[in-house]
Every structure is written in structure tokens, then in C-alpha cells.
Design goal:
Elements lengths: L6 E2 L2 E2 L5 H11 L4 E3 L2 H4 L16 E4 L3 H13 L4 E4 L16 E4 L6 E5 L4 E4 L5 H8 L4 E2 L12 H7 L6 H4 L6 E7 L5 E5 L10 H5 L8 E8 L1 E2 L3 E9 L2 H13 L6 E6 H11 L9 E9 L1 H17 L4 E4 L3 H12 L1 H6 L4 E4 L2 E2 L5 H15 L3 E5 L5 E2 L1 E5 L6 H18 L15 H7 L2 H14 L14 H7 L18
Parallel strand pairs: 4-6, 5-6
Antiparallel strand pairs: 1-2, 3-4, 7-8, 8-12, 9-13, 10-11, 10-12, 14-16, 14-17, 15-16, 15-20, 18-22, 19-21, 20-22
Helix pairs in contact: 1-3, 8-13, 9-11, 13-14, 15-17
The structure holds flavin-adenine dinucleotide.
Protein name: Glycolate oxidase
Cofactor: FAD
InterPro entries: FAD-bd_oxidored_4_C (IPR004113), FAD-bd_PCMH (IPR016166), FAD-bd_PCMH-like_sf (IPR036318), FAD-bd_PCMH_sub1 (IPR016167), FAD-bd_PCMH_sub2 (IPR016169), FAD-linked_Oxase-like_C (IPR016164), FAD-linked_OxidoTrans_Type4 (IPR051914), GlcD (IPR004490)
Length: about 500
């Protein structure tokens, strides 16, 4: 599928004079790397959601903030839409380029500018990889907590734009909780600092507002992150279940017992088998579901928590409970989980990764609902997700070469998100709305709420040039879609209606 994304439902973006734009970029910034022809543009046609792709009009790769400012000023003056891109690992089409716009690639901003172990913070450029921050902090016994499974590749700028999460966010928070300050360049070319090195600052909390704004409000050019001391010890308990709903209930039981694990993840049988075939993590391939529960902190607390978790899991009906014997086994257990997406990619020609969040108590019912939908649509669904914070990642397996399968997968995905909203959850937990879930926003938000989002957007970007057509749908689009804050009839699962 190739979606030409220049057309917004409520109007068409102005045509851009490409020749004029390229000439003015060359004239204003002679050293700037500008790609605007044929094969050069191919690698930038999509992000991690490869079902959507568009050839950008031009790709620019600046390496100084001044260059970004000049590019933005030019684009503003010539009404050229701008899509920022970090590492392109996004899973919701957020960095999908425009046929009539430039793709501003921030990959060359890859330096750690300052690492202050005493203040426990680091000042980094936006193109720095998430994992590279923890690697640089490691000699000081520190690390950067949010750890998306894509951390080896994704950039901190992209993490800020998506408010990225990861395995350890249940205990340590999302990106927004782990940054102090970001510097942005606005579409008018102004450099602004949002947040500060103090824990709180007067005025509106623009840092929180900006985090997760998916490139719609400005371009991140610098990030100051918090660093945490590495826990003295960490242990992982793996529990097997013969029934996925029991595993879902056990998640709530652990939290209800007053334990906040460093990570609490669930995998169903399909993803267990795929990950085991790929990584040989030592997973029980006959289990219907496993929970991986990490406990970290000081030795004595971790020891006591492991015992308590074991008791809770036994009571919840776990068929087998194993504590990773040593650090190597702990790493193997996590490697299986962190590689579960590519592992599922090996057992199906294509897969579509959903990202809904639900209240923990709704887990068993929603898992049952997904199973039922999977049967209805005759498409396999693998569940592997951040169970502790209710952030689900159903992976819908399909074959894009089979006529109609992609459309069926998309429809099934939308139904799963409806289910999440229905039980009081949200259409995204960490992958963002991007292009992919823009229609689902019409289901989750009322017109008045969307109007408020548009007012915020206008305050930063009056002309609507930054990443148009992503994240926040126009009211017109919602009316066309026909899904304006309506629930899609009665749920097929009456037991969920009490949530
Ligand atoms: C295998 C796999 C596993 C993943 N696991 C997780 C996970 O556990 N948790 C999670 O949260 N995500 C996960 N993701 C999704 C993705 O890695 C994150 O959303 C990540 O934050 C994207 O970073 P990026 O640098 O690749 O951004 P991109 O994909 O390049 O861009 C993402 C969005 O950010 C905007 N953007 C990028 N850079 C800037 C900037 N400098 N200024 C302003 N806007 C910018 C773009 O316009 C776009 O809207 C996973 C992806 C894959 C492929």
C-alpha cells in the first residue's frame, strides 16, 4: 500500500516549489547535505510501519542547530511542510514523509555533549541512540531508565517526540519522567528551552506538553536526561501458566500485594515459541503464557520481594516458577522478550504491531476479547507486552501478498483499539498515534477535546507546517470517518461491559 499523504481530509496542502526550495537551501546553507533525487530518497520512504510509504520531496541532514534554524525559517517563509525524523524506528508512521514537504533527518546530531555523574544528568543531542546514553553512563554506575525494546537503534529525540516507554517504565516512568529539559527549534526558527535543571519551574509545564507531541510542535535539538544509579541487584522470576487469563489476573495480584517490579511482562504461547526458536532463552514452549517479573534494588529487599512474588504467583495458579539462576540467565530471559517482535517476524510474512493501554484489571477480559476477534478475522495474534502498566502489544500476523489480508489486519487492529477504549484505556501506550491511529483518535476524544489540541498546535505552529496529518485528526476527518467519539455498538463480550 502506498498512501500519498499530502492530502488532508479538510484540504490540500499548498504545492511546494521544489526548485525554488532546493536553490534557497543551497544558497543559505552551502554545506548542508540535501537529497532530492531518485534512489537517494528510497531509504526514507517509511519508518518502522512499512505498510505506509511515501517518497519525500527532499531529505535534509543538518548537523548544527543553526542549520536547523535556517531550514525552519526557509520552510516557514515558503510554506513548506516539515517532518522530523530520528532513527525511523517508529511504529505508527510518525516519520512518514510528505510528497510535498521535506524530511528533516536528525541522525547526525549524535553527540553526548556533557555527562555530569555528580548531578546525575547528561546533555545529549537528539540523534544519540537510547542505549548509547546508558553505555556512556555505565562507568559511573549510572543509567538512563526508559528502555524501549528498540533501544539499540532509536534516538532520544524520537523518544521525546513519542514519550517512549519500555520494560522498566512501570517502576521508573516514561520518557517524560526521566528528562529535565529539552531545547527545541520552532517552525519560525526560534530556539526555545522547555523545562529546567530544577525539579519544577513556574509557568505552564511546556516540557510535559511537548513530550509525546510527535514532531507537531517543534524540532528537538538537545535533551537533558536524568541518570539513575544502577540497582545493586536485579533478579527475574519467570512464571508459567496454562491459561492466559490466569496470567492476566496474576499481574494485578502482584501490584495489589504492594510490590512494584522493575519490569512485569507477559508473553502468550505464540510469542513464547517464536522467541524460543529465535533466541533460545529457555522459555517453556508448552506454557499458554509466561510472566517475567524483575525485582531490583538492594539485595535484602529483592530477596524478600522474590519470596512474596513467588507466593502470589503460586496462589494465582502458576504451573511453574523459576528464578533466573545467575546474571547470564537473567539476560537470556530478557533477550527473549526484547527480541519477541523480530522473532514473530520470522514466523509470518508480515505482522502488524498494535499498542493499546488498558487498566490492569481489564487484562483477562481484553485478552479473551482479542482471542475472540482473532478467531472472527481468521488471523493469528501474538501477545507480548508490558503487562504491569497495562500496555498491550498484540501482533497481528498476516500476509500482505494475500488479497485483502492487510485490510483485514487493519480492521482487526482498529477493533482491538476500540476494545481498549471501551474498558477505559487508550489507543496508544508508547508507539504514538502517527498516521496509523489518526482515525482511532476520533473514537477516543470528543470534538471539544480535539479543538483544544488544535489550539495548542496553533500556538506553536500557526500555519500547520510541522508533521501535518499526524497525531491529531481534524474534526472534518473525524466526521468523514464517522467515528466521532462513538463506541462501535455493543461489545461482543458482555463480561467487559462492567469495566
Ligand atoms: C522492534 C521495535 C521495538 C520497539 N519497542 C518499543 C518500546 O518498547 N517502547 C516504545 O516506546 N517504543 C518502541 N518502539 C517504537 C520506536 O522505537 C519508538 O517510538 C522510538 O521512540 C522512535 O524513535 P526514533 O528515533 O526511531 O524516531 P522516528 O521513528 O524517527 O520518529 C518518531 C516520531 O518522532 C518525531 N521525531 C523524531 N525525531 C524528532 C526530533 N528531533 N524532534 C521532533 N520530533 C522528532 C518524528 O516526526 C515522528 O513523529 C519499537 C520499535 C521497534 C521497531
Amino acid at each position: 500500500m502506498n498512501i500519498l499523504y499530502d492530502e488532508r481530509v479538510d484540504g490540500v496542502l499548498p504545492r511546494v516549489d521544489k526548485t525554488r526550495l532546493i536553490a534557497s537551501l543551497h544558497e543559505a546553507l552551502p554545506g548542508l547535505l540535501v537529497l532530492h533525487e531518485g534512489e537517494d530518497l528510497k531509504p526514507y520512504e517509511c519508518d518502522g510501519l512499512s505498510a505506509y510509504s511515501t517518497t519525500p520531496m527532499a531529505v535534509v541532514l543538518p548537523d548544527t542547530v543553526e542549520q536547523v534554524q535556517t531550514i525552519m525559517r526557509l520552510c516557514h517563509a515558503q510554506n513548506v511542510p516539515v517532518v522530523a525524523r530520528g532513527a525511523g524506528t517508529g511504529l505508527s508512521g510518525g516519520a512518514l514523509p510528505l510528497e510535498q514537504g521535506i524530511l528533516l533527518v536528525m541522525a547526525r546530531f549524535n553527540k553526548i555533549l556533557e555527562l555530569d555523574p555528580d548531578a546525575r544528568r547528561a546533555r545529549v543531542q537528539p540523534g544519540v541512540r537510547n542505549l548509547a546514553i546508558s553505555q556512556a553512563a555505565s562507568p559511573y554506575g549510572l543509567y538512563y531508565a526508559p528502555d524501549p525494546s528498540s533501544q539499540i537503534a532509536c534516538s532520544i529525540g524520537g523518544n521525546v517526540a513519542e514519550n517512549a516507554g519500555g520494560v522498566h517504565c512501570l517502576k521508573y516512568g516514561l520518557t517524560v519522567h526521566n528528562i529535565l529539559k529539552v531545547d527545541i527549534v520552532t517552525i519560525e526558527g526560534e530556539r526555545l528551552t522547555l523545562g529546567s535543571e530544577a525539579l519544577d519551574s513556574p509557568g505552564f509545564d511546556l516540557l510535559a506538553l511537548f513530550t509525546g507531541s510527535e514532531g507537531l510542535l517543534g524540532v528537538v535539538v538537545e535533551v537533558t536526561v536524568k541518570l539513575l544509579p544502577k540497582p545493586q541487584t536485579a533478579k527475574v522470576v519467570m512464571a508459567s501458566f496454562d491459561n492466559i487469563e490466569k496470567a492476566g489476573r496474576a499481574v494485578g495480584d502482584i501490584i495489589a500485594a504492594g510490590i512494584i517490579p522493575g519490569g512485569l511482562e507477559m508473553m502468550d504461547n505464540l510469542s513464547i515459541r517464536a522467541a524460543e526458536d529465535f533466541i533460545h532463552a529457555g522459555y517453556p514452549v508448552d506454557a499458554e503464557a509466561i510472566l517475567l517479573c524483575e525485582l531490583d534494588g538492594v539485595e535484602s529487599d529483592v530477596h524478600a520481594d522474590c519470596d512474596r512474588v513467588r507466593q502470589v504467583l503460586e496462589k494465582a495458579g502458576a504451573t511453574e516458577i523459576r528464578l533466573a539462576r545467575d546474571e547470564a540467565e537473567r539476560q537470556r530471559f530478557w533477550a527473549g522478550r526484547k527480541n519477541a517482535f523480530p522473532a514473530v517476524g520470522r514466523i509470518s510474512p508480515d505482522y502488524y504491531c498494535m499498542d493499546g493501554t488498558i487498566p490492569r484489571r481489564a487484562l483477562p477480559g481484553v485478552l479473551r476479547g482479542i482471542e475472540e476477534l482473532s478467531r472472527q478475522y481468521s488471523l493469528r495474534v501474538a501477545n507480548v507486552f508490558h503487562a504491569g502498566d497495562g500496555n498491550m502489544h498484540p501482533l497481528i500476523l498476516f500476509d500482505a501478498n494475500q488479497p485483502g489480508e492487510l485490510e483485514r489486519a487493519e480492521e482487526l487492529g482498529a477493533k482491538i483499539l476500540d476494545l481498549c477504549v471501551e474498558v477505559g484505556g487508550s489507543i496508544t501506550g508508547e508507539h504514538g498515534v502517527g498516521r496509523e491511529k489518526i482515525n482511532s483518535m476520533c473514537t477516543q476524544f470528543k470534538p471539544d477535546e480535539l479543538t483544544m489540541f488544535h489550539a495548542v498546535k496553533k500556538a506553536f505552529d500557526e500555519k500547520g507546517l510541522l508533521n501535518p496529518g499526524k497525531n491529531v485528526p481534524t474534526l472534518h476527518r473525524c466526521a468523514e470517518f464517522g467515528g466521532m467519539h462513538v463506541h462501535h455498538g455493543k461489545l461482543p463480550f458482555p463480561e467487559l461491559e462492567r469495566f
